[in-house]
Amino acid sequence: MPDFQPVLLKNRYVDRIWDIDVYESRGGYAAVRKGLKTMSPDQVTEEVGKAQLRGRGGAGFPAARKWGFIPKDLSIPRYVVMNSDESEPGTYKDRQLLEWDPHQCIEAMILSSYAIQAKLSFIFLRGEFVLAAERLEYAIQQAYRKGYLGKNILGTGWDFDLHIHRGAGAYICGEETSLLEALEGHRGQPRLRPPYFPAAKGLYYDPTVVNNCETLCCVPHIVERGADWFESIGTEKSKGPKLYCISGHVQKPDIYEAPFGITLRQLIDDYAGGMRPGRTLKAVIPGGASAPILGPDCLDMTLDFEGVAAAGSMLGSAAVIIMDDTTCMVGAALNLIHFFRHESCGKCTPCREGTDWLFKLLRRIEAGHGREEDLETLLKLCDNMDGKCFCLLGESALVPVRTSVLKFREDYERHIREHRCPYDLRLSH
Amino acid sequence: MRPLSERAVARIRELMKRYPRKGSALLPALFVAQADHGYVTHGAMREIAGLLEISPADVEGVATFYTMFAKRPVGEYVLQVCTTLSCALCGGISMLKHLEKTLGIHAGETTPDGKFTLLPVECLASCGTAPMMQVNDLFVERLTLERVDELIAELRAKPGHFGRQIAGTYDPHYLGLGSGNRFSSLSEDNVPSAGGGLGDNHDLS
Fold first, then answer.
1. Domains of chain B
2. Could you give the angle at the alpha carbon of B87 between the alpha carbons of A358 and A344, nearest 5°?
């Protein structure tokens, strides 16, 4: 394991770190003091730009460029919304950040809101994250009392209010326009694009920056330690520290913070304790359920945006799901399509109907009633959804199905030939 | 019975102040209503519509869209078992089947004594501590079938004091912040502690 000091997780095992006194004793809020007292809002954005901070939610879009889209005319209300609706299967990093280090999230919100001069911002988190919500509420109250939130913060003349907003159980709200709909009190269904960025029309159709929790949590560290330090970590195009969530068939599944660009082999063997004894790697999902499934030949890809793309998948939220040779790939695809079918918001037909058809076909194959022509029907269905869905949910739903049929066809054929699932491990209910 | 208690109405009015537009308070208001009665009643939805100045149809449309709002009574303890891939790879499905057998109900049902509701749910962002389930508001992680049995026995013996979404009120006193564990009988042995994961949910003190 390379010598690397955790950045985002540096407070992970600190007792009561969610209390502001403990957080300050560990150097907390130094970044807010430095940013607000010695830097102009534009300088904060420039520093984040120089650090080449890219979005950790999945798309990898440069954060400072998003911020740069916000109009300079301060008479127009503007907002920052932290996207912590973490629901992508395999992903559990934002919950870690919210529960264990809520003040880091608040610092991140203060600095990013200062950069675009927002007067009101929201942390949007999954409704199920009750502990995180409690700790954040508590932490926000403390930050108000200490003068980091509220009127005339640190004597700068800038007023700023911060609130949390809980979702209520809908994966689609991770899609940023659906998230804004939920924040406005509507059903979480995506808005028509263009405009492509909420920076043009966001919350209440005003300019809004929506960034992932992990992305924003990098900001206080960039402000405090400088863009040059941040930029010195990682690969040529993927800069900074990264939280890797590894789950499934490894000995020590957990969140590991490492510089961008470690290889999958390193993540499995050096960090996660390797595969279970006597088992071999069969399949990997490198970036959450929406990422194409890879076979065991991808062990040496680097886990940065470019490396995973070159291997034929995407880094996404860096949620790495490991499956060993006990895994039925039909069952795995069925499990994931069950998820997407459940989470489809119902707005567009290709997604609503497509996920249901894929589910029914896969269920039939898994139960041993599949027919040979089902495989072509599955692929055709995927083609009929591809590029035709209203938002990325539908576009993502077909990906695990298509890649598992193409890469693990033998598993499918065995189900059809033997009229049963040849594996013991059940992956669907 | 009034659709919403006075306390709930006061809380909703307070929450409305957070937003530039009243309608934004709909999700928080529904959580408050749910904490009030254990589920979201039609009367509560109508009263919320009045408070937020939106149509009752809009409120119902939203309440039925999101999975966290119960539209009918649920058990004292709602067991939400994660069945998505990372948990399923680690035995989440057999855990669900085991619970069906232990409780004598199918997934989605409530036991006749009103004690337990068993729900299979999609990914709860606890993939590194699989398999897991959420018991009311509490994440219980790194489960084994033995641990599940212990937990059920413990919950059976203990009256459930907590509604499905108590935290919807955001009230630090109501939430138990600073007042110790909500499931005080769950010792650290029963609820896995940090040890590299996220399992410190039992500790709010």
1. 6-65 (1.10.10), 77-162 (3.40.30.10)
2. 35
The residue written with tokens 């995927």 in the block is A382
* Domain residue ranges in chain A: 20-231, 241-324, 329-418
Q: If you count residue pairs, one on A and one on B, with CB atoms under 8 Å apart, how many are there? A: 188
C-alpha pair distances (Å), B54 with each of A106, A184, A285, A392, B5: 32, 12, 43, 30, 20
Under DSSP, is residue B53 helix (H, G, I), strand (E, B) or coil?
coil
Q: For residue range A168-195, what is the model confidence (pLDDT) as tens digits?
A: 999 999 999 999 999 999 999 999 999 9
Is A92 at the interface with chain B, CB within 8 A?
yes
Determine whether the interchain pair B89/A425 forms a contact, defined as Cβ–Cβ distance below 8 Å.
Answer: yes
The total number of residues shown for chain A amounts to 429
- Please name the residue of chain B whose CA is at the shortest distance from the CA of residue A170: B66
CATH for the stretch A241-324: 3.10.20.600
**Quick check: A343 contacting B, CB < 8 Å?**
yes
CATH topology (fold) of A20-231: Rossmann fold (3.40.50)
Mind listing the pLDDT tens digit for each residue in B56-98? 999 999 999 999 999 889 988 899 999 999 999 999 999 999 9
B118 in helix, strand or coil? strand
Q: What is the pLDDT of residues A374-403, one digit of tens each?
A: 999 999 999 999 999 999 999 999 999 999
pTM, two decimals, is 0.92
Q: Which CATH class is domain A329-418?
A: mainly alpha
- Is the peptide bond between B131 and the residue preceding it cis, with omega within 30 degrees of 0? yes
A254 and chain B in contact, CB less than 8 A:
yes
Are the beta carbons of B37 and A160 closer than 8 angstroms?
no
